[in-house]
Amino acid sequence: xxxxxxxxxxxxxxVIYLMLFPAILYFVIFNVIPIIGMKLxxxxxxxxxxxxxxxxxxFKVLFSSPAFFDVLQNTIIISTMKIVFFFPIPIVLSLMINxxxxxxxxxxxxxxxxxxxxxxxxxxxxxWISLLSPDAGGINxxxxxxxxxxxxxxxxxxxxxxxxxxSEMWRSAGWDSIIYLAAIxxxxxxxxxxxxxxxxxTFQQMxxxxxxxxxxxxxxxxxxxxxxFLNAGFDQVFNMINDSTISKIDILDxxxxxxxxxxGQYAYATAASLFKGVIGVILILxxxxxxxxxxxKGVW
Amino acid sequence: MRRFVKRxxxxxxxxxxxxxxxxxxxxVPILNLLAMSLSDPLQVHKLSGLDIIPKGFSFINYEVLFxxxxxxxxxxNSLFLTIVxxxxxxxxxxxxxxxxxxxxxxxxxxxxxxxxVIMVFEPGLIPEYLLVKDLGxxxxxxxxxxxxxxxxxxxxxxxxxxxxxxxxxxxxxxxxxxxHFRIFTRIMLPLSKPGLATLGxxxxxxxxxxxxxxxxxxxxxxxxxxxxxxxxxxVERDNTTLLGAQNLLSYEQVQALDFGSLQAGTIIISIVPLxxxxxxxxxxxxxxxxxxxxxx
Lengths: 300, 296
What we know:
Chain A is an all-alpha fold. Chain A has helices at residues 3-12, 14-37, 57-63, 66-86, 88-98, 104-114, 121-131, 138-145, 160-185, 189-197, 202-227, 234-240, 246-249, 252-262, 266-295; strands at 43-44, 52-53. Helices cover 70% and strands 0% of the residues of chain B. The interface between A and B is large, with 97 and 94 residues.
């Protein structure tokens, strides 16, 4: 196409550009400007006048600060615990739900276990604070029944990370099982028929047909989860953290919030946030391409 | 017909039992809060954390909550933010989705690439906060409505719905002389109701549950949405704000009130609208989330 042809087409399609304009304007203001704004990590913030370039000053302070490494360590520990103990649960759940006949019981189970996904972490924190309350909360009622002493989980340094893992399960295990359930539905019924004729039990069918067929979905979800490794669940921690447990569950995002928004150290917080962002982008891009290579499915 | 014979075996019995127990683990903590909020304040101390039947029965907690102007206002604030926010989300997302899915123009590939790039580079909290501050949007609802007005994941999902509308219909409209905007409003939107319903639920649930940006952007408690008020009561344990009810109750009755029950009541109030929409959520949201491959 000639130059002239391109201009002619742009002129002819002006309505299209007009329709696209609000979206582009929006993305430029609310995405591009804040992304460029990350340059604050290399500056000192000034309320009046231009910010001053200070190079790597904030990063030097960051990387020599023990607090930052504590927070990084917490983030890695919590993410790892969630991957090890939470990740397999939705897979097992989907295998179990798949064994249910279509009918009211299956509908009931699905409707109930998907529900917590739609509650905010504020509400879930409220539910769990009540459930774990030392004052006749459900879990302590059970503990007392087995002659165990009452335990205040929400303020216990030894237990709070497990509270994060289990409340994450409570919220997401059901919902996350949907993606596996959909993959199971696509498995050809003839495989099961053949297996049953050969006398395979329900468990054997699960073990030798469903699970191997499910594996590629498991790999995709696992790899994509790794891309968000440094997130570790901001909303969850933000609503469950307190002074007693801060040393155990303060993560990168809550740290950025505290030093940035609460203490007003904008530039320093942006440096911490940029560190997390750069590693995040590297993780997302590499997991995207690994997943594309292995299974043909990526983040986008 | 996935299975030609379904016998009720032992393994199935075990699976049903396990799933039933799991469903109780989800339901009992919520029903316990409901029971707590409906119990008689004088008897609620007898309610154990596993009970789902109220001890005695009283609406007093809800009377107190609904007589607190802060709570009543926050409910309306939340409804306003959810309705206006979702409407704007839907309109702008659909407009962009139509252009990207159903038209061909110079620079389309560049626009798509641009979207993917900004999807990967999530801006940090601080620059976003400073932008909102510089735009003079602190303490305004615009700051909440404009965050992720177009969610790129959702945009891609809606594009997939729009792609399903048959070419022939658009072609016929074009021959009849309809322009792009007319095709968008008269054909694309009416024929994509399931897609719009799906996205409306995505955005609606997001707005209803939003608390974080409201916490940092809104300093005036009168503007708070319900989630921020709940956070104040339940997470921050700020009981003084909860007692906005002296007019309704005599001093002794206020003394008898149980804060745990009042907190439970606020949680239940916030769950009710979700339950109203839950059948639609199950129908559209789950399907849309699968097709888009979105986790959240």
